[in-house]
């Protein structure tokens, strides 16, 4: 692995930190984090989590049985979340393109880009195999949605900035972890829960990698990194936002407690921000201070919005329970 000349302590003004210089300066950190990741990441076998004995031929070429919703024990909420999570994972070629273009394919950066892509690849494989073997979703609808979603491709909101890209993936990997974990909990199938816990563990390690990289960026270029964090946090959206029917699915996922504003604030944004001590970092210049202030104001507003959501959710669930009791 190449170790690039490190300029972490070079006396450069913040304006000197172009993306290219940052990528060079962070290569040593990438190498350290990559080696740490490879030590703690345990390989696992997606096929072991798929109950193949439950599988049977579908209609069509093999003349098997057509899909019907009652063939699966997965809950309606689990089904919606699993499809969103899988379609999100399916767009991996676009994500690979984004990070390979931004971080490069050489040296430690390149080794990470390829390793990450290989790990992400097994998430889509495992979830699709599970869904098809257990008949948890309509396979025709799933395939049509995959074709439509992948045909659109994915373009990051952050591809114009290396620091924004790193900040985004630090939060997004944790968001994905939480989303997989909560989907497993609400799936109604212990095996699905086990599979998604395994995937969530991969996502957590990805988050740790990017979070540690972001920490190093805050040390090297604090004002620019603070600005990147503020921009990403205040404008965050999940990578699956282009999925057909995403808004409706996201509403069900929010009400069902798989992923919503409260979870986003408490379980995704705050843990990363607290770990990096983003709100306590001192010694910032005017640009960094402005970004830190914006972030503080935004987080306060988001917390209040999340509280309003909590109240609406509780009222809706109470109404549903009352309707059910009256039936
Ligand atoms: Fe993944
Ligand atoms: Fe990941």
Descriptive account of the structure:
With 327 residues, this protein is an all-alpha fold. The chain is built from 12 helices and no strands. The protein has helices at residues 19-25, 27-40, 76-90, 92-103, 107-133, 139-152, 162-185, 190-220, 222-234, 246-255, 261-275, 286-326. Helix 5 (107-133) packs antiparallel against helix 8 (190-220) and helix 7 runs antiparallel to helix 8 (190-220). The longest helix is centred in the last third of the chain and has 41 residues, at 286-326. The chain is globular, with a radius of gyration of 21 Å. The relative contact order is 0.12. Bound molecules: fe (ii) ion (2 copies). One fe (ii) ion is lined by residues 89, 120, 123, 176, 203.
Give the arrangement of secondary structure elements:
Blueprint: H1 19-25, H2 27-40, H3 76-90, H4 92-103, H5 107-133, H6 139-152, H7 162-185, H8 190-220, H9 222-234, H10 246-255, H11 261-275, H12 286-326
The structure holds fe (ii) ion (2 copies).
One fe (ii) ion binds next to α5.
Quick gist of this model?
The chain is mainly alpha-helical and 327 residues long. Helices cover 68% and strands 0% of the residues. The protein has helices at residues 19-25, 27-40, 76-90, 92-103, 107-133, 139-152, 162-185, 190-220, 222-234, 246-255, 261-275, 286-326.
Low-confidence stretches: 1-12
What percentage of residues falls in helices of 4 or more residues?
Answer: 55-70%
**Main sheet makeup:** none
Q: Secondary-structure element sequence?
A: HHHHHHHHHHHH
What portion of residues belong to β-strands? Answer: under 5%
